[in-house]
Amino acid sequence: MKGLTAAGLTGSHGTFTVHDCHPHHSSSSRSSSRSYDFDCDGTFHTADGKAADPRASMSSVDTDYRAGAHVPVQAHRGSTLLSFLASTYTVASRGEVTKNFMIAFSVLLALPFLLFGRLTGFGENGGTLRQMRETWRATAGTRTRTIVLTAAAVALVGMFVVSPVLGFVLPTAG
Hints:
Helices cover 42% and strands 23% of the residues.
């Protein structure tokens, strides 16, 4: 959904005027290394000039924008799915479209492992890495192996082929 929003296919297009940006700190991060994501506060104005949000914010932005920068964005208020997945405003650019689709396809990389466990019964009572390798070897030449490898191939092709193509062909308002 965030990729479609960045492409301008959902939400309302407008401009986010940056007031300030600060490094995004995740509570799950145990590393003391520098953060490359930023949270930005500013003002949002719809492209048609009918609405404004003087207390707008964007989280986990890749760029540390300077105060006064005008960033093309898509607003997506009112969608509970989108509000769960992302902040209210998404940068509208080809790079954001590609990045968001790559993230979505990378989540699909869990599917081959889930399918392997479900189709072979591996992991129902625990199992070691050695047992997993033995179970994998036992699937040679079976439909299980084909299904698991196909699911992995779909996720990888989606990440490295489909995502960049979508970033190129989907129109962006930015």
